[in-house]
Design goal:
about 425 residues; alpha/beta; Urease, subunit C, domain 1; 2 domains; eight-stranded mixed sheet; eight-stranded parallel sheet
């Protein structure tokens, strides 16, 4: 991901709309950006709207296998869905996961996602499945932050893991550290850490995971307050909310990304905001699971940076995640324009890249040369590049070109990586 070249964008977003933009790339980073310039003879022409690459801050690639398989057989809630998810997690060995993750990452790349945060807890084969994710990302050409999750217990009361959860665990935090230290950053790869949740990791082990990440300047993530049952159990056992528990243990900070943060009260919001915690909303998955709508406006006002993720990958479209962040709150509150379009675009680009540990998300010199072009030929030729129309009028299917590290990896809407064999209609690996 260290290529060089020159591109000429018909329209580009530079924090404002600009026309006839020449983007010069050297060794995978943007060298210069020039507006109102004719295309150099050697330039690749980008017709449409060119913006920074999209960041998918929270993904579980294997959960894509549940598309269409968890929608029959009666109703239920999150916990019913979780049982089906556990069964799906047992289907993969490293060879199968490499193939399946390649399919998922290819769909992400063609949707304009140039970096994915893969929240990984399938550890029954040690690092084999994590390494399969890294290899799949390299094969497809997408950046990956492998957010390796510590998962140690079945609940806040210390109950043991059930049969399905055992395969997620290293047994204790010392074995988690030993295993994760075998994973290395590389070209297009960052290794991050995760506390799976307050219910799955005891306080002392949380501190160890956070210390490991902070010594290395690595991203640190956690599932937080997605379900009221987790909040109730935390109050019953620890005498405080999950956010208060993280504050007590010194986990909160600007390097932490809290995924979901739905069931948080005013005090929780104040704590998260004062510590500048990133919050990742995963609207399409939260809809799918019947989750409630989090107080995202209040979190942002308190000081949190908002990001977005595809989570279970029932939908892979970061523009949809960004507008859903707003639209779901409209239905919950009865109010409109809770977030300005520019704020939603930042959540999908610069904020997300920061949460994943990448110098990307802006078209400016020194940044990684990750950018995408969206094209609606019947419209984009006469409409100026407006964040409002971008967020509310475009989707993943409009992505025509993707550049990662100065290398074109999607052209005319199709990834340049070779055909991946072995996926059936049911989503299984043959």
């Amino acid at each position: 991901m260290n290529e060089s070249g020159v591109w000429h964008a018909q329209q580009a977003w530079l924090g404002r709309s600009a026309r006839d933009v020449v983007i010069e790339v050297e060794h995978g980073r943007i060298k210069a950006v020039t507006e109102n310039a004719p295309p150099p003879p050697e330039a690749t022409i980008l017709e449409g709207w060119t913006i920074p690459g999209l960041a998918n801050v929270h993904s579980h690639a294997f959960q894509d296998v549940l598309r269409g398989r968890a929608e029959s057989g009666g109703g239920g809630d999150f916990w019913d869905w979780r049982r089906k998810m556990y069964a799906a997690a047992a289907e993969f060995d490293s060879a199968a996961y490499l193939k399946y993750a390649s399919w998922v990452f290819r769909e992400m790349l063609e949707a304009g996602i140039t970096a994915v945060g893969e929240f990984h807890y399938l550890h029954r084969h040690g690092n084999e499945l994590g390494e399969a994710l890294i290899q799949a990302a390299a094969d497809i050409g997408i950046r990956i932050t492998l957010i390796d999750a510590c998962y140690l217990r079945g609940g806040l009361d210390g109950r043991p893991l059930d049969d399905a959860q055992v395969s997620f665990s290293d047994g204790d935090v010392e074995h988690w550290v030993k295993r994760v230290e075998q994973l290395k950053d590389g070209d297009g790869v960052r290794i991050g850490a995760a506390i799976h949740s307050v219910r799955a990791v005891d306080p002392a082990s949380m501190r160890t995971v956070a210390e490991w990440a902070r010594k290395r300047g690595a991203p640190l993530h956690i599932h937080l307050a997605e379900q009221p049952a987790e909040v109730d159990e935390c109050r019953a056992v620890e005498g405080c909310s999950p956010a208060e528990l993280l504050d007590r243990e010194g986990i909160l900070g600007p390097d932490l990304t809290a995924v979901h943060a739905i069931h948080v009260d005013e005090h929780d919001i104040s704590l998260l905001g004062s510590q500048r915690v990133n919050v990742c909303a995963c609207a399409t998955t939260e809809r799918d699971l019947g989750d409630r709508v989090g107080p995202l406006r209040a979190l942002a006002d308190a000081g949190c940076s908002l990001t977005v993720g595809s989570d279970s990958n029932a939908v892979i479209d970061i523009l949809e995640e960004a507008r859903a962040l707003e639209l779901d709150q409209r239905r919950a509150t009865g109010r409109r324009v809770i977030h300005q379009p520019e704020e939603l675009l930042r959540a999908a680009t610069a904020n997300g890249m920061l949460a994943l540990g990448w110098d990307a998300g802006e078209l400016s010199p020194g940044m990684l040369a990750d950018f995408i072009t969206l094209n609606q030929p019947r419209r984009s030729t006469w409409r100026p590049l407006e964040p409002a129309y971008l967020i509310y009028g475009y989707s993943a299917c409009d992505v025509s070109n993707v550049v990662v590290g100065g290398k074109t990896v999607v052209s005319k809407g199709r990834a340049r990586a070779g055909r991946i064999e072995g996926r059936t209609r049911a989503g299984r690996i043959e």
